[in-house]
Structure formats: structure tokens, C-alpha cells
């Protein structure tokens, strides 16, 4: 697992801040904030969505997003992802053109052309359109509680953009014995997971039936939905799950863990995969 300096620079923007404290005078200093920028995705020359993301690993983001939306079945459905000629400086580096073998689902208005960094399902128009497509997991994977409680510190140590800005989420894939395989950061929780799934798709590793997913914040519907699509049997979060996330985990056989700390955890669904 490698983090390129160029990726860190793309994810962080320098700023000047005035820091005020109750017990001292204000001080001005240099700081950094997480970059949030639009990525326009075109398929066959037609804009289909705009993803608000942190630049870096854009091709993985697009691959993971299209997979999660059911547009592709695997990475082989993508012929190419390229940067087309653009008309303005604002678009430079923020537009990708995707050429597909066959689209399993046509963007026919089911999703509007905008997705914010805080919402993985923004633009869906009906309850029916958020139906989860997937099959329940029957993975025999088990992980000890001692291994799980060590994961948050390992994920935090592999978040260079968070260390500089404090403003990005992370998704990390781990082995059953707690080794960190890969991590992705982004201002959007769902974007970080899309990048991670896109990375795995490019390697031919999906379904990820022998992996543990850890996310840095809370876990809600869209993260569990993406885990279902990728075949991940254990989803853990340092924050709380939503009711919809718990319901989905129970329905699809996913072990769902929240409030994961060095001191313990809460298991909300399918606890049999966690051993003492």
C-alpha cells in the first residue's frame, strides 16, 4: 500500500486561519483544508452525473460508483476512462469520459445529475429507486474481537489527508488477522468507499468475501449498500449505524459493528463472525 505525495497535495489546499482562544490573543497561521471539487462523469459523450469529491484516484471513484449504481458488472465492462478536451480552466482535471462495453442500466432520469459529498443517494426520485440489488453473503469469515479493536488506530495512521486537514473520511480494507490492505480518503464517506471498491475491481478482487471494511465515521444506508454489492461480509465503523443500515445488514447477512474502539464495540447484526 502506497500513498503518493501527489495524491496528498491534490487532497489538501493551503489556507490562512485566524485562531482564537479564550485564554490568549488571536494568532494567524498557515493551515490546510480538504479539497472538495466537482467531477463530471460522461458516458458516450453525455454527462450523467457530477460527483463532489476530493481529487485523487478519480478513475477508481468512477469505477466504484458505476459498479455500485449497477451500470457495470465488473471492471471489464469499462473500455476506457479518459480526460477529454475541456472548454474552461474550471473543467480541467474535473471531467472524465467513460467508454463502456455494455451498460447494464441506462441513466434514463432515474438519477439526477448531481451527487454531493455528503449524500450517496442524492437525486434518487423514488423509494423504488433505492432498492438494494445484491445477494446475501454466506462468507465463513471470522475475526477476533481483539483484532477488530486494533483496527481504528491502524486506519487512522494511514490517513495522511486527515492528519493534515481533519476534514476527510476514510474506508479501509483489512484481512482477518488485522493487516491493512488498502485505504482511500475523501470528503464524502461514500466516495471513499467507491474509490476502495474501484481499486479492488481493477485488481479483480471482487467479491471481497474474506475482507473486513472499516469506515471512519458513521455507517448509513449507502455504505452498507455498497458493501453488499462488493460482497463484503463484515462492516465496522467508528461511529453509529442508522436503522436502515442495521436492517440491510440483517437482511443480507452482513456483520455490522459500530462504535468500534480499543475498549470495545457494539455489534448490531450477525455477531457470529466475531470471536472472543
Automatic annotation (TrEMBL):
Is this entry keyworded Manganese?
no
Q: Which UniProt keywords apply?
A: Cytoplasm, Molybdenum cofactor biosynthesis
Q: Which domain of life is it from?
A: Bacteria
Location, primary (coarse class): cytoplasm
Fetch the InterPro entries from UniProt. Answer: Cytidine_deaminase-like, FdhD
Active site residues per record = 119 (cysteine persulfide intermediate)
Q: Where in the cell?
A: Cytoplasm
Entry's family note: Belongs to the FdhD family.
- Role this protein plays: Required for formate dehydrogenase (FDH) activity. Acts as a sulfur carrier protein that transfers sulfur from IscS to the molybdenum cofactor prior to its insertion into FDH.
* Entry protein name: Sulfur carrier protein FdhD
Species this protein is from: Gemmata palustris
